[in-house]
Amino acid sequence: xxxxxxxxxxxxxxxxxxxxxxxxxxDKKAVxxxxxxxxxxxxxxxxxxxxxxxxxxxxxxxxx
Length: 64
Fold this sequence. Notes:
Elements: E1 2-10, E2 17-24, H1 27-32, E3 44-46, E4 52-60
Antiparallel strand pairs: 1-2, 1-4, 3-4
């Protein structure tokens, strides 16, 4: 298992960027822990806790 830092925006919060840490086997599975469905062609995604936004970056921080 590796720890990933996911940077994302939330459409209802304007230009603010948020970060979440998730433990998973790879970066795709870490992102899936936050999303209700896969991002569409434009990058928009639906979060499990409601609302829409975009995933900006996924970074492996296991050894940092």
